Amino acid sequence: VQLQASGGGLVQTGGSLRLSCVASGFTKDYNAIGWFRQAPGKERERVSCISISSSDARISYADSVKGRFTISRDNAKNTVYLQMNNLEPEDTAIYYCTAAAVFCTLSALEIDYWGQGTLVTVSS
Q1: What is the pLDDT of residues 15-51, one digit of tens each?
Q2: 93-100 and 32-38: which strand pairing?
Q3: Radius of gyration for the alpha carbons in the chain, expressed in angstroms and rounded
Q4: CB contact at 8 A, 51 and 102
């Protein structure tokens, strides 16, 4: 399984970005796709995740991004999006697309696949 993330960049406080994650390979190896982020000097934290099953509508968000970030999927394109609105300097981090058999795990150790990171920088 390969995960290709894109969409990071530099934005001012209050701005928006949309991250994309395209999955390829054997997509039956996982049940959820999500995003972790890692800020300088901090541990990786889960941002959001979504089930990839068409019959499962489960979505989860970290408290710090609820109401500002929206995750969505396009199963036909094997793509998951993370719309990030009202960005804050605290959102500055490298964002990693992830895939896991465990739905919305908080532990980076339970992630089965990691994409390359995409850098999001929010200036104050």
Answers
A1: 999 999 999 887 778 889 999 999 999 999 999 999 9
A2: antiparallel
A3: 13
A4: no
